[in-house]
Amino acid sequence: MKHLLFSGILLLLFSCTQHSQTAQSVQLLAPQAYAEQLKSSSGASIIDVRTPEEFKGGHLKESVNFNIYDADFDTRIGKLDRSSPVFVYCKAGGRSADAAERLKKLGFASIYDLKGGFMAWNAAGLESTAAETVQQEKFTITDFEKLIGTETPILIDYYAPWCGPCKKMEPILNTLSQEYSGKVQIVRINVDEAPNLIKQQKIENIPVVSTFKNGQEIKRVTGFQDETAMRAMIEELLK
Fold first, then answer.
1. Residue 14 falls inside a structural domain
2. Is 109 inside a domain boundary?
3. Eight-class DSSP state of 106
4. Looking at residue 183, what DSSP letter applies?
5. Any idea what DSSP says for residue 193?
6. pLDDT tens digit sequence for 140-196
7. Nearest 5°: phi and psi at 39?
8. Which one of 77, 163, 176, 230 is the catalytic residue?
9. pLDDT at position 132 over 80
10. Which pTM value belongs to this model?
């Protein structure tokens, strides 16, 4: 009986050790490191998890489009070779992080996620395909220059409709816009509608909040900002 019990404990320990050795973590890589890892990885799959419309606007060469919002997304990625490296990316990094975790749960051996997504890739000047369709530009560089050229201090929120943190910030910005009406102009710029401006301003991720006074940028922060943080930025503008 003791021998059987001891054997059972050894088997359990061995199983745990084996699991820890095979369990994989997602590697989040900056654009240049991602590109270098991609070059050195043979037989890799490159998965663009954005929408087809975004994909047509330009993408990494040899990447395939598996829209993470599609109902069959998990089924499609599940058909990939789990022993080969998989590289995922999206627009700014949020959706690809979700996709990477799904790949991890499915047991893929090597998973690489592009930090900052396709926005960061473009900002780094790395090679991608040309857009199949011309992106609709609703807010131009000229519009931006006119905006920051006004006398009223400005707070700009760079956002996208698909960005979770951006959605959480919207009601806060609406409240502050009403409170500081006539003192500070609060403007939201959809990054999908201002591709040339985003490239010029080197916006690599979203949300981004930037403040301007007398045509000069005063402060820029990236990531979710709560009401306290944005109020402090506004008060700094009014000094």
1. no
2. yes
3. T
4. T
5. G
6. 999 999 999 999 999 999 999 888 899 999 999 999 999 999 999 999 999 989 989
7. -65, -35
8. 163
9. no
10. 0.69
Mean pLDDT of the chain: 88
Residue of 14, 86, 58 lying closest to 195 (CA atoms): 58
Look up the CATH number of the domain holding residue 36: 3.40.250.10
Supply the DSSP string of 19-87, one letter for each residue: HHHH---EEEE-HHHHHHHHHT-TT-EEEE-S-HHHHHT---TT-EE--TTSTTHHHHHHTS-TTS-EE
Rounded-to-integer distance, Cα 102 and Cα 108, Å: 9
Cα–Cα distance measured from residue 239 to residue 235, given in angstroms and rounded to the nearest whole number: 7
- The question of whether 90 is a catalytic residue gets the answer no
For residue 204, what pLDDT is reported? 84
The reply to whether 201 falls in a domain is yes
Annotation says 163 is catalytic: yes
Which residues constitute the domain of residue 147? 141-237
Q: How far is CA 162 from CA 26, 60, 170, 213, in A?
A: 23, 20, 13, 29
Query: Could you give phi then psi for residue 84, rounded to 5 degrees?
Result: -100, 155
Catalytic option among 38, 88, 155, 166:
166
Q: Which helix (H) or strand (E) holds 94?
A: helix 94-105
Contact, 48 vs 99, CB < 8 A? no
Total domain count, the chain: 2
Mean pLDDT of 113-117: 95
Other beta carbons less than 10 A from residue 7's beta carbon: 10
85-90: average pLDDT: 97
Residues 111 and 191 in one domain: no
Amino acid at 16: C
